[in-house]
Amino acid sequence: MDSEPARSSGATDITHVTEPPIASRSGVTRSRPLSTWFVWAVGVFVALWVLFIARGTSAGAAVDEPGEFIVTLLDGLTFAGLLFVVASGFTLVFGLMRTVNMAHGSLFLLSAYVAIEIQQSMVGKDRNIEAGDVGILQWVVPLLIGSMVVAVVGIVMQQLLLRWNQGQDLRQALITLAVSVILADQMLAHFGGLAQRVVWPGAVTQFFEIAGERYALSRLFMLALALCVGIALWLWLNHTRMGMVIRAGVDDQEMVRALGINITVVFGVTFFVGAFLAGMGGVMGASFAGVAPGTDGQWLLNSLIVVIVGGLGSIKGAVAGSLLYGMVIAFAPAYLPSDYTFYAIIFTFVLLALVLAVRPYGLFGREA
Predict the structure, then answer these.
(1) Would residue 310 be called left, alpha or beta, if left means φ above 0 and alpha means ψ between -120 and 50 degrees?
(2) Which UniProt keywords apply (predicted)?
(3) Cα 283 to chain center, whole Å?
(4) DSSP classification of residue 367
(5) Which of 75, 115, 123, 226 is placed for a possible disulfide with 283 were both Cys, Cβ 3.0 to 4.6 Å?
(6) H-helix or E-strand spanning residue 353
């Protein structure tokens, strides 16, 4: 007689525990396939449009104009490389420190301006520098100096302003926003309001022919630099002690502290590297398209889009987000009907909506 209530109680407990997960799982399985199938349908439609249907567009259908398709594809890949360099620093800082660095775009722009000043000093001209005036060292040295300057600015900002507000996400975001406003005003006062650029070295300004179309070697050089950055980041994060500590800290900061690791030093190194990458991207971006007041806000937005699509705190997500966003930026204006190319910006938000409908934390993101 004593055993029957025990079995009854046990049965009741099991029922109570198991029913909610079944209901939860059934709710997910009813909703997620619909959004997933919709995303696949959109992808198939876009592929068919680009390959066969888009004959009234500036690029033409890919089967009719393969050269235009290849050039557009390369444009997307090379721009994605630049996006990755900038956004990887942003997502690295967020992944470990949970800090949304609103000054990231300002660091991008500051590095570009510093590199412009250094290059002009090395070449001996204030304006109208041509590619023939620039050797490889007269581009690499400004790149390194500009990146190091903003890396130092970043570490000072982290140690003096953010270190004392660790864990207070909103306060940190407001602090970095204030820093970005101050930097923007000072850069406008010192460097002026005209568009400027870092000049590519003459060795990479040549054009080559691909599928009957001319293409700039400088864009492939930019893609090669981005690949080198990606490989270096992967090696650092996976094959060095500091990189492994950073990856562990992304997953569990308390565990890292419990092991006796000085998390303050880890935060400092992470912010230094994130700012350095922003600076490197700034010099590459200034060589690619020039910079002007307001460029900082545009590249902060670009970084946010990449990490939202890929997942905050994920380097793999930064790669995926950069590729998707780069392809949208390249293909949308080229394969929209000629009278509607000004709607290309809408496809950025379509990309965000489609990804977040299937993966609310981004492609490789996890709940913070």
Answers:
(1) alpha
(2) Amino-acid transport, Cell membrane, Membrane, Transmembrane, Transmembrane helix, Transport
(3) 15
(4) -
(5) 115
(6) helix 346-358
Per-domain boundaries in the chain: 63-304
d(Cα 186, Cα 337) in Å, to the nearest integer? 42
pLDDT in tens, 115-150: 999 999 999 887 788 888 899 999 999 999 999 999
DSSP at 136: S
Q: Would the pLDDT of 66 be above 90?
A: no
- Give tens-digit pLDDT for 206-264: 998 887 888 999 999 999 999 999 999 999 988 888 888 887 776 677 777 787 888 88
Mean pLDDT, the chain, rounded, equals 85
Assess contact for 198 and 287: CB atoms under 8 A. Answer: yes
The encoded tokens of residue 88 equal: 């990887």
Q: Which residues contact 183 (CB under 8 A, 6 or more apart)?
A: 103, 106, 107, 109, 110, 296
**List of residues 6+ apart from 173 with CB closer than 8 A:** 99, 100, 102
Query: SS3 of 291, please?
Result: strand
Q: DSSP secondary structure string, 74-134?
A: HHHHHHHHHHHHHHHHHHHHHHHH----TTHHHHHHHHHHHHHHHHHHHHT-SS---GGG-
CB 145 within 8 A of CB 283: no
Q: Do residues 67 and 212 touch, judged by C-beta distance below 8 A?
A: yes
- Asked if 313 and 365 count as a contact pair (C-beta separation under 8 A), the reply is yes
The full DSSP string for 176-230 is HHHHHHHHHHHHHHHH-SS-B-PPPPGGG--EEEETTEEEEHHHHHHHHHHHHHH
Report helix, strand or coil for 364. Answer: coil
Which letter does DSSP use for residue 361 in this model? T
Contact call for residues 163 and 264 (beta carbons, < 8 A): yes
Structure tokens at 147: 């990146």
Residue 57's identity, in one-letter code, is: T
pLDDT of 257-307, one tens digit each? 787 888 888 888 999 999 999 999 999 999 999 999 999 999 999 999 999
Q: What is the pLDDT of residues 1-44, one digit of tens each?
A: 444 444 444 443 433 444 344 444 444 444 456 777 777 888 88
